[in-house]
Automatic annotation (TrEMBL):
The keyword rRNA-binding does not apply. Belongs to the class-I pyridoxal-phosphate-dependent aminotransferase family. Keywords: Aminotransferase, Transferase. Its EC number is 2.6.1.-. InterPro entries: Aminotransferase_I/II_large, LL-DAP_aminotransferase, NHTrfase_class1_PyrdxlP-BS, OxyQ, PyrdxlP-dep_Trfase, PyrdxlP-dep_Trfase_major, PyrdxlP-dep_Trfase_small. The lineage of its organism: Bacteria, Bacillati, Actinomycetota, Actinomycetes, Streptosporangiales. NCBIfam families: DapC_actino (TIGR03539). One of its GO terms (molecular function) is pyridoxal phosphate binding. Residues 28-358 form the Aminotransferase class I/classII large domain. SUPFAM superfamilies: PLP-dependent transferases. Its cofactor is pyridoxal 5'-phosphate. The keyword Membrane does not apply. Signal peptide: none annotated. This is Aminotransferase.
Length: 359
Protein backbone atom coordinates (compact mmCIF):
# COMPACT_ATOMS: atom_id res chain seq x y z
CA UNK A 1 0.00 0.00 0.00
CA UNK A 2 1.20 3.50 -0.82
CA UNK A 3 1.18 5.76 2.24
CA UNK A 4 -0.94 8.80 1.46
CA UNK A 5 -1.33 11.78 3.79
CA UNK A 6 -4.66 12.27 5.58
CA UNK A 7 -7.07 14.27 3.43
CA UNK A 8 -6.34 17.65 5.04
CA UNK A 9 -9.79 19.20 4.63
CA UNK A 10 -11.26 16.65 7.04
CA UNK A 11 -9.31 18.38 9.82
CA UNK A 12 -11.15 21.62 9.10
CA UNK A 13 -14.64 20.11 9.62
CA UNK A 14 -15.10 21.20 13.29
CA UNK A 15 -14.24 24.79 12.37
CA UNK A 16 -16.67 24.67 9.49
CA UNK A 17 -19.38 23.65 11.95
CA UNK A 18 -18.38 26.50 14.24
CA UNK A 19 -18.53 29.02 11.38
CA UNK A 20 -21.88 27.62 10.21
CA UNK A 21 -23.32 28.39 13.65
CA UNK A 22 -22.89 32.15 13.07
CA UNK A 23 -26.26 33.96 13.15
CA UNK A 24 -25.69 35.40 9.66
CA UNK A 25 -24.31 32.12 8.28
CA UNK A 26 -20.87 30.99 7.18
CA UNK A 27 -18.62 32.97 4.85
CA UNK A 28 -16.51 30.19 3.39
CA UNK A 29 -13.13 31.42 2.14
CA UNK A 30 -11.41 28.08 2.62
CA UNK A 31 -11.63 25.97 -0.54
CA UNK A 32 -10.92 27.96 -3.71
CA UNK A 33 -13.99 26.76 -5.56
CA UNK A 34 -15.66 29.12 -8.05
CA UNK A 35 -19.07 30.51 -7.04
CA UNK A 36 -19.89 32.72 -10.03
CA UNK A 37 -21.89 31.45 -13.02
CA UNK A 38 -20.48 29.28 -15.78
CA UNK A 39 -20.16 31.73 -18.69
CA UNK A 40 -22.89 31.55 -21.34
CA UNK A 41 -20.30 30.84 -24.04
CA UNK A 42 -19.37 27.58 -22.24
CA UNK A 43 -22.93 26.45 -21.57
CA UNK A 44 -23.94 27.05 -25.17
CA UNK A 45 -21.02 25.07 -26.57
CA UNK A 46 -21.60 22.25 -24.05
CA UNK A 47 -25.28 22.01 -24.96
CA UNK A 48 -24.56 22.12 -28.70
CA UNK A 49 -22.22 19.14 -28.29
CA UNK A 50 -24.62 17.14 -26.09
CA UNK A 51 -25.29 14.57 -28.83
CA UNK A 52 -21.86 12.93 -28.61
CA UNK A 53 -22.40 9.17 -28.74
CA UNK A 54 -18.89 8.22 -29.86
CA UNK A 55 -15.67 8.08 -27.85
CA UNK A 56 -13.86 11.41 -27.60
CA UNK A 57 -10.30 11.83 -28.80
CA UNK A 58 -7.69 11.53 -26.06
CA UNK A 59 -5.56 14.09 -27.89
CA UNK A 60 -8.55 16.42 -28.09
CA UNK A 61 -10.19 17.81 -31.20
CA UNK A 62 -8.10 19.90 -33.59
CA UNK A 63 -10.49 22.76 -32.78
CA UNK A 64 -9.68 22.54 -29.06
CA UNK A 65 -5.92 22.28 -29.55
CA UNK A 66 -5.94 25.25 -31.92
CA UNK A 67 -8.00 27.28 -29.42
CA UNK A 68 -5.51 26.45 -26.64
CA UNK A 69 -2.53 27.38 -28.82
CA UNK A 70 -4.34 30.57 -29.88
CA UNK A 71 -5.01 31.55 -26.26
CA UNK A 72 -1.36 30.96 -25.27
CA UNK A 73 -0.22 33.12 -28.18
CA UNK A 74 -2.79 35.89 -27.71
CA UNK A 75 -2.68 36.24 -23.94
CA UNK A 76 0.74 34.96 -22.96
CA UNK A 77 3.13 35.47 -25.86
CA UNK A 78 3.74 31.72 -26.13
CA UNK A 79 3.98 29.86 -29.42
CA UNK A 80 3.08 26.16 -29.35
CA UNK A 81 2.18 23.81 -32.15
CA UNK A 82 -1.44 22.67 -31.57
CA UNK A 83 -0.10 19.10 -31.86
CA UNK A 84 1.76 19.73 -28.58
CA UNK A 85 -1.40 20.44 -26.58
CA UNK A 86 -3.16 17.67 -24.67
CA UNK A 87 -6.46 18.08 -22.77
CA UNK A 88 -6.69 16.78 -19.19
CA UNK A 89 -9.62 16.00 -16.89
CA UNK A 90 -8.99 19.19 -14.93
CA UNK A 91 -5.40 19.87 -13.96
CA UNK A 92 -5.50 18.09 -10.59
CA UNK A 93 -5.70 14.77 -12.40
CA UNK A 94 -2.48 15.54 -14.32
CA UNK A 95 -0.72 16.89 -11.23
CA UNK A 96 -1.55 13.66 -9.40
CA UNK A 97 -0.47 11.34 -12.23
CA UNK A 98 2.36 13.17 -14.02
CA UNK A 99 5.20 11.47 -12.10
CA UNK A 100 3.63 8.08 -12.90
CA UNK A 101 3.01 9.00 -16.55
CA UNK A 102 6.66 10.08 -16.88
CA UNK A 103 7.88 6.82 -15.39
CA UNK A 104 9.14 8.14 -12.03
CA UNK A 105 9.25 5.51 -9.32
CA UNK A 106 11.01 4.00 -6.36
CA UNK A 107 14.29 5.71 -5.53
CA UNK A 108 13.32 8.92 -7.34
CA UNK A 109 12.72 12.22 -5.64
CA UNK A 110 10.24 14.65 -7.20
CA UNK A 111 11.05 18.27 -6.38
CA UNK A 112 8.05 20.32 -5.25
CA UNK A 113 7.74 23.82 -3.75
CA UNK A 114 8.19 24.09 0.01
CA UNK A 115 4.75 25.67 0.38
CA UNK A 116 2.53 23.98 -2.14
CA UNK A 117 -0.76 22.65 -3.36
CA UNK A 118 -0.83 19.20 -1.67
CA UNK A 119 -1.35 17.18 -4.87
CA UNK A 120 2.30 17.53 -6.00
CA UNK A 121 3.26 15.51 -2.92
CA UNK A 122 0.49 12.99 -3.52
CA UNK A 123 1.50 12.57 -7.18
CA UNK A 124 5.06 11.68 -6.22
CA UNK A 125 3.78 9.10 -3.74
CA UNK A 126 1.31 7.57 -6.20
CA UNK A 127 4.29 6.89 -8.48
CA UNK A 128 6.14 5.22 -5.60
CA UNK A 129 8.63 8.11 -5.62
CA UNK A 130 9.40 10.49 -2.80
CA UNK A 131 8.29 14.14 -2.64
CA UNK A 132 11.15 16.54 -1.95
CA UNK A 133 9.81 19.92 -0.78
CA UNK A 134 12.52 22.49 -1.34
CA UNK A 135 12.61 25.96 -2.89
CA UNK A 136 16.32 26.39 -3.65
CA UNK A 137 17.59 23.85 -6.17
CA UNK A 138 21.12 24.20 -4.75
CA UNK A 139 19.91 22.02 -1.87
CA UNK A 140 19.31 19.14 -4.32
CA UNK A 141 23.05 19.00 -5.08
CA UNK A 142 24.28 16.63 -7.77
CA UNK A 143 21.31 14.23 -7.36
CA UNK A 144 19.45 13.41 -10.58
CA UNK A 145 15.73 13.98 -10.21
CA UNK A 146 13.10 13.10 -12.83
CA UNK A 147 10.78 16.06 -12.26
CA UNK A 148 10.73 19.56 -10.79
CA UNK A 149 7.38 21.28 -10.14
CA UNK A 150 7.04 25.04 -10.11
CA UNK A 151 3.81 26.94 -9.47
CA UNK A 152 3.56 30.62 -10.32
CA UNK A 153 1.39 32.39 -9.26
CA UNK A 154 1.56 30.13 -6.23
CA UNK A 155 -1.19 28.45 -4.36
CA UNK A 156 -1.17 29.22 -1.40
CA UNK A 157 1.14 32.25 -1.26
CA UNK A 158 0.22 34.21 -4.40
CA UNK A 159 3.92 34.64 -5.10
CA UNK A 160 5.04 35.16 -8.69
CA UNK A 161 8.33 33.72 -9.94
CA UNK A 162 10.02 36.22 -12.26
CA UNK A 163 11.21 35.10 -15.72
CA UNK A 164 14.80 35.13 -14.52
CA UNK A 165 14.05 32.70 -11.68
CA UNK A 166 12.16 30.37 -14.01
CA UNK A 167 15.00 30.57 -16.54
CA UNK A 168 17.45 29.34 -13.90
CA UNK A 169 15.17 26.45 -12.98
CA UNK A 170 14.89 25.43 -16.65
CA UNK A 171 18.67 25.65 -17.16
CA UNK A 172 19.31 23.65 -13.98
CA UNK A 173 16.83 20.96 -15.04
CA UNK A 174 18.15 20.73 -18.60
CA UNK A 175 21.69 20.20 -17.35
CA UNK A 176 20.46 17.22 -15.34
CA UNK A 177 17.89 15.79 -17.72
CA UNK A 178 14.99 16.63 -15.37
CA UNK A 179 11.56 17.64 -16.63
CA UNK A 180 10.20 21.00 -15.45
CA UNK A 181 6.44 20.99 -14.96
CA UNK A 182 5.01 24.44 -14.43
CA UNK A 183 1.53 24.63 -12.90
CA UNK A 184 0.11 27.82 -14.39
CA UNK A 185 -3.54 27.58 -13.38
CA UNK A 186 -3.57 31.16 -11.99
CA UNK A 187 -1.57 32.72 -14.84
CA UNK A 188 -4.29 35.22 -15.77
CA UNK A 189 -4.76 36.48 -12.20
CA UNK A 190 -1.80 38.84 -11.89
CA UNK A 191 -2.49 41.89 -9.66
CA UNK A 192 0.68 43.72 -8.64
CA UNK A 193 2.89 41.32 -10.63
CA UNK A 194 2.67 40.03 -14.18
CA UNK A 195 3.08 36.23 -14.20
CA UNK A 196 5.00 34.70 -17.10
CA UNK A 197 4.62 31.20 -18.57
CA UNK A 198 7.54 28.78 -18.52
CA UNK A 199 6.98 28.41 -22.26
CA UNK A 200 7.60 32.11 -22.89
CA UNK A 201 10.79 32.69 -24.94
CA UNK A 202 12.20 34.90 -22.12
CA UNK A 203 12.18 31.81 -19.90
CA UNK A 204 12.88 28.88 -22.20
CA UNK A 205 14.91 30.61 -24.94
CA UNK A 206 12.40 29.55 -27.58
CA UNK A 207 12.82 25.77 -27.08
CA UNK A 208 10.26 23.75 -25.12
CA UNK A 209 12.64 20.85 -24.58
CA UNK A 210 12.10 19.28 -21.16
CA UNK A 211 9.25 21.61 -20.24
CA UNK A 212 5.53 21.15 -19.66
CA UNK A 213 3.06 23.92 -18.80
CA UNK A 214 -0.10 22.81 -17.00
CA UNK A 215 -3.25 24.90 -17.44
CA UNK A 216 -6.73 24.91 -16.00
CA UNK A 217 -10.01 26.50 -16.99
CA UNK A 218 -11.48 26.03 -13.51
CA UNK A 219 -10.69 29.53 -12.31
CA UNK A 220 -10.35 31.54 -15.54
CA UNK A 221 -13.70 30.36 -16.87
CA UNK A 222 -15.50 28.95 -13.78
CA UNK A 223 -15.30 25.43 -15.25
CA UNK A 224 -14.20 23.57 -12.10
CA UNK A 225 -17.38 21.50 -12.34
CA UNK A 226 -16.68 20.56 -15.96
CA UNK A 227 -13.13 19.28 -15.23
CA UNK A 228 -11.22 21.10 -17.93
CA UNK A 229 -7.47 21.53 -18.22
CA UNK A 230 -4.62 20.94 -20.62
CA UNK A 231 -0.90 20.45 -20.77
CA UNK A 232 1.38 21.86 -23.46
CA UNK A 233 5.08 21.93 -24.20
CA UNK A 234 7.87 19.54 -25.22
CA UNK A 235 6.59 17.58 -28.28
CA UNK A 236 8.37 14.39 -27.18
CA UNK A 237 6.95 14.52 -23.66
CA UNK A 238 3.44 15.38 -24.85
CA UNK A 239 3.58 12.45 -27.26
CA UNK A 240 4.65 10.14 -24.45
CA UNK A 241 1.84 11.38 -22.19
CA UNK A 242 -0.66 10.95 -25.01
CA UNK A 243 0.44 7.36 -25.59
CA UNK A 244 -0.05 6.35 -21.95
CA UNK A 245 -3.27 8.33 -21.57
CA UNK A 246 -4.78 6.61 -24.62
CA UNK A 247 -4.13 3.23 -23.05
CA UNK A 248 -5.41 4.35 -19.67
CA UNK A 249 -8.65 5.97 -20.88
CA UNK A 250 -7.68 9.39 -19.56
CA UNK A 251 -9.82 11.39 -21.97
CA UNK A 252 -11.92 14.53 -21.67
CA UNK A 253 -15.58 14.17 -22.65
CA UNK A 254 -16.55 15.57 -26.06
CA UNK A 255 -19.04 18.19 -24.75
CA UNK A 256 -16.42 19.47 -22.30
CA UNK A 257 -13.86 19.66 -25.10
CA UNK A 258 -16.33 21.79 -27.06
CA UNK A 259 -16.91 24.08 -24.06
CA UNK A 260 -13.14 24.39 -23.52
CA UNK A 261 -12.56 25.44 -27.14
CA UNK A 262 -15.30 28.07 -26.86
CA UNK A 263 -13.96 29.65 -23.65
CA UNK A 264 -10.36 29.60 -24.87
CA UNK A 265 -11.46 31.63 -27.90
CA UNK A 266 -13.25 34.17 -25.71
CA UNK A 267 -11.54 36.72 -23.45
CA UNK A 268 -14.55 38.80 -22.51
CA UNK A 269 -15.93 36.43 -19.87
CA UNK A 270 -12.44 35.88 -18.44
CA UNK A 271 -11.89 39.63 -18.07
CA UNK A 272 -15.28 39.93 -16.38
CA UNK A 273 -14.43 37.17 -13.91
CA UNK A 274 -11.02 38.68 -13.26
CA UNK A 275 -12.79 41.97 -12.46
CA UNK A 276 -14.97 40.21 -9.87
CA UNK A 277 -11.94 38.78 -8.10
CA UNK A 278 -10.14 42.13 -8.28
CA UNK A 279 -13.03 43.90 -6.53
CA UNK A 280 -13.24 41.25 -3.80
CA UNK A 281 -9.52 41.46 -3.24
CA UNK A 282 -9.69 45.26 -3.00
CA UNK A 283 -12.11 45.15 -0.07
CA UNK A 284 -10.86 42.02 1.67
CA UNK A 285 -7.19 42.91 1.82
CA UNK A 286 -7.54 46.24 3.71
CA UNK A 287 -10.24 44.72 5.95
CA UNK A 288 -7.82 41.99 7.05
CA UNK A 289 -5.02 44.51 7.50
CA UNK A 290 -7.19 46.79 9.63
CA UNK A 291 -8.10 43.78 11.77
CA UNK A 292 -4.42 43.03 12.49
CA UNK A 293 -3.35 40.69 9.73
CA UNK A 294 -0.29 41.14 7.52
CA UNK A 295 -0.60 40.03 3.91
CA UNK A 296 2.53 38.38 2.51
CA UNK A 297 3.27 37.81 -1.21
CA UNK A 298 -0.26 37.63 -2.72
CA UNK A 299 0.69 39.80 -5.72
CA UNK A 300 -1.23 37.39 -7.99
CA UNK A 301 -3.61 34.47 -7.84
CA UNK A 302 -6.79 33.67 -6.02
CA UNK A 303 -5.72 33.91 -2.38
CA UNK A 304 -4.48 36.25 0.32
CA UNK A 305 -1.66 34.72 2.36
CA UNK A 306 -2.27 36.31 5.74
CA UNK A 307 -0.76 36.17 9.21
CA UNK A 308 -1.40 37.80 12.58
CA UNK A 309 1.73 36.16 13.96
CA UNK A 310 -0.03 33.39 15.91
CA UNK A 311 -0.37 29.68 15.07
CA UNK A 312 -2.49 29.08 11.96
CA UNK A 313 -5.04 26.94 13.82
CA UNK A 314 -5.59 29.72 16.40
CA UNK A 315 -6.27 32.08 13.49
CA UNK A 316 -8.64 29.54 11.93
CA UNK A 317 -10.52 29.23 15.24
CA UNK A 318 -10.71 33.00 15.83
CA UNK A 319 -12.07 33.62 12.34
CA UNK A 320 -14.48 30.66 12.55
CA UNK A 321 -15.95 32.26 15.68
CA UNK A 322 -16.83 35.21 13.44
CA UNK A 323 -18.36 32.80 10.91
CA UNK A 324 -15.38 33.10 8.53
CA UNK A 325 -13.75 29.89 7.35
CA UNK A 326 -10.19 30.00 5.99
CA UNK A 327 -7.54 27.35 5.32
CA UNK A 328 -4.67 26.87 7.81
CA UNK A 329 -1.25 27.49 6.28
CA UNK A 330 0.15 24.17 7.48
CA UNK A 331 -2.07 22.36 4.93
CA UNK A 332 0.54 23.55 2.42
CA UNK A 333 3.71 22.74 4.32
CA UNK A 334 5.28 23.28 7.74
CA UNK A 335 6.56 26.70 6.64
CA UNK A 336 2.92 27.85 6.54
CA UNK A 337 2.23 27.29 10.21
CA UNK A 338 1.84 31.01 11.02
CA UNK A 339 -0.34 31.85 8.00
CA UNK A 340 -3.87 31.32 6.80
CA UNK A 341 -5.00 31.20 3.19
CA UNK A 342 -7.97 33.40 2.43
CA UNK A 343 -9.71 32.63 -0.88
CA UNK A 344 -11.40 35.28 -3.01
CA UNK A 345 -13.98 32.72 -4.11
CA UNK A 346 -17.11 33.91 -2.31
CA UNK A 347 -19.98 36.00 -3.59
CA UNK A 348 -19.79 39.79 -3.22
CA UNK A 349 -22.49 39.51 -0.56
CA UNK A 350 -20.42 37.05 1.51
CA UNK A 351 -17.24 39.11 1.04
CA UNK A 352 -19.09 42.18 2.34
CA UNK A 353 -20.24 40.10 5.33
CA UNK A 354 -16.60 39.22 6.05
CA UNK A 355 -15.59 42.88 5.88
CA UNK A 356 -18.37 43.78 8.39
CA UNK A 357 -17.42 40.96 10.74
CA UNK A 358 -13.75 41.96 10.75
CA UNK A 359 -14.57 45.54 11.84
C1 LIG B 1 -1.99 25.07 -7.81
C2 LIG B 1 -3.16 24.28 -8.29
N1 LIG B 1 -2.99 23.38 -9.25
C3 LIG B 1 -4.01 22.64 -9.71
C4 LIG B 1 -5.28 22.80 -9.21
C5 LIG B 1 -6.36 21.92 -9.73
O1 LIG B 1 -7.28 22.59 -10.51
P1 LIG B 1 -8.28 21.85 -11.48
O2 LIG B 1 -8.13 20.38 -11.27
O3 LIG B 1 -9.62 22.34 -11.11
O4 LIG B 1 -7.87 22.25 -12.84
C6 LIG B 1 -5.51 23.72 -8.21
C7 LIG B 1 -6.85 23.87 -7.66
O5 LIG B 1 -7.17 24.64 -6.82
C8 LIG B 1 -4.42 24.49 -7.73
O6 LIG B 1 -4.60 25.39 -6.77
Amino acid sequence: MIALPDFPWDRLAPYKELAQAHADGIADLSVGTPVDPVPAVARKALAAAADSPGYPQTHGTARLREAAAGWLRRRHGVTVDPADVLPTIGSKELVAWLPTLLGAGRGDRVVIPELAYPTYDVGARLAGAEPYAVDGLVAVGPERVPLVWVNSPSNPTGRVLPAEHLRKVVAWARERGAVVASDECYLELGWEDHPVSVLHPDVCGGSHEGILAVHSLSKRSNLAGYRAGFVAGDPVLVKRLLEVRKHAGMMVSAPVQAAMAAVLDDDEHADEQRGRYARRREVLRPALERAGWRIDHSTAGLYLWATDGTDCWDQVRGLAEKGILVAPGDFYGAAGRAHVRVALTATDERIDAVVRRLQ
